[in-house]
Amino acid sequence: MTATGATAVSHDVPNPSAESPALLLRGVRKAFADVVAVDRLDLEVARAECFGLLGPNGAGKTTTIEICEGLTAPDEGTVELLGLNWHSHADELRQRIGVQLQETQFPDKLSVEEVLLLFRSFFRHGISVDESIRTAQLEEKRAARVGTLSGGQKQRIAMACALVGAPELLFLDEPTTGLDPQARRHLWDLVDQLKQAGRTIILTTHYMEEAERLCDRVAIMDHGRVLALATPQQLIASIGGEHIVEFAFTPHDHENTAPDIAMLTAIPGVQSHRTVAGLHQLSVRELHTAVPRIFAELGRQGLHLSEFRTHSATLEDVFVGLTGRNLRDE
Amino acid sequence: MNKLQRSSLYQLSITRFRLTLREPEAIFWVFIFPILLAVGLGIAFRNRPADVLQVAATTPQLTRALAADNGLAASTMDQPAGSRALANGSILLLAIQQPDGIIYQFDDTNPDARTARLLADRALQTAAGRHNPVPSTDRLVHEPGSRYIDFVVPGLLGMNLMGSAIWGIGFSIVEARQKKLLKRLVASPMRRWQFLAAYLIARLTLLVLEVVAFLGFARLIFGVPFRGSLWQLAVLCVLASLSFSALGLLISSRARTMEAASGLMNLVMLPMWILSGVFFSASRFPAVLQPIVRALPLTAAIDALRANMLQGMSLQHLLAPIAVLLAWLVVPFAVSLRIFRWR
Q1: Superfamily classification of domain A240-312
Q2: pLDDT value, residue A208
Q3: How far is residue B87's CA from residue B90's CA, in Å, rounded to a whole number?
Q4: Which of A108, A110, A121, A154 to probe the B interface (max B CBs under 10 A)?
Q5: What range defines the domain where residue B183 resides?
Q6: Are A249 and A308 in contact (CB under 8 A)?
């Protein structure tokens, strides 16, 4: 077989539009019964980009990615992958994309190698089964039955099946959901390698640290819409401060527990204030000068702190800022 | 990796084959169970020498006359004791001496009792001096082909063809759908017809093994006859298996859970186990039911298998059951291709 490297991709059909974006969605809408899962979505993903759809469960991420994968037909709108569409180029597209779905269970009684031989046989071109096993770091499990694999290993075999056709465009739907932290880092390393090899990757996740770590650009989704779309750094910068100060009060008898917000936001370096689940949050630019002033102001207002902490701003804070909810509330 | 290994049809078929053979329960139901059933039925219905029938009479003279017949074992008892013995089944007939003749007391709905009545009357009339106007002698035959085991083996074969096709195809398709494997496969460039064709290829390969094992056993242990042509028997087995596979495909074309599929399979197969003449002739059902019974694929399969094996009939005389099987192949296959749920 033609054992092309992970980076090399060859085709019988010359690519008609090498300059077209890897993925282009225009006005895509999909409703199930009376629930609008995806609401007039526009997205454009460049070649060799790692693009993340971040949002809570039920935000429409999976529906969006399944529309891209050709598994779900949108009610409205156009979908183009690599300059091709699902109506006229379905067979060609399936040869050129790699897919990892959320809940695929491969047959327990097949070995890792047998599963990959099966999937490899569907593709005209691709990497060898050996190479896919090596890439997914399953060498020691090659002859093991799928039923004996750990959760992380099962995700990696799903990844190997997505890679075995040497796809130009790779879709990963919640690749690390349900994995322990070590298995998750393991999978992140694998995605890093693929990025370095120049693959276009589109992934969904509800872990903000995953999106921050892996993605060149992130679309934050909620209720089927994109609320914000930029690089993780730009998104974090958009909330105004690199740091978040969080605090709460002990309600003492006959004491005021509501701080004077206007006085707090007037402190130099404090950009904004919001309350999430009883916790006050301030976006702060210069922590070392702002924090003593915040303490002083709270003391002046006669409030008893029960909690006080700071952290660097993350995409979680961006999501909270956009929706007023935590990512993992649902 | 050679060319064969790179063929997706080969990989899909070999995958099906592996998954079937790695399922110990499937091996039991397909290979062991029909043989166990044949052994059990062969023992239960083995041909025994004609039974000696227990009878009684109220006088010793009558008892002696009855005992003169080889087919009867006679004892003497008075009328009340005889009635009790009749009631508990320890005798089949009581001959009561009357001044003007003999009364036979017996249950005429019991075939053995009716036989005892004929034997007893013959013995007593002969003892009283009757001569047969026409001389007659018996010639006894115990021929393979007319025994119960000969009748039931084609029935069990048909039942096995149905069960292995419907279970084998139905459960694995629904399991693949439930575990989202089907969805993953259609997201790949797999040809959908190859996925279904692989089931048929694996089924027909296993069919050879299971039919040869079962019929070989029936031949070696029970001497069940094969009076028709063997290749025509093979054609009938393949046709029946394909029809049942189409039915299995139809059953599994929409079901999302194993429970739903299991219920549907029982709904489809249970009536056929009862109505299609596996263990006794389907013609015993009333005439109103016959059109339904005849239209069932298992009835058609078993009728054709029996006609081939026991009567040596050739295919051109079996057009009716073949037409029924073909209809059950084409219609469910066409319908399931239309309604099949790939995700």
Answers
A1: YebC, transcriptional regulation domain (3.30.70.980)
A2: 82
A3: 8
A4: A121
A5: 9-45+145-339
A6: no
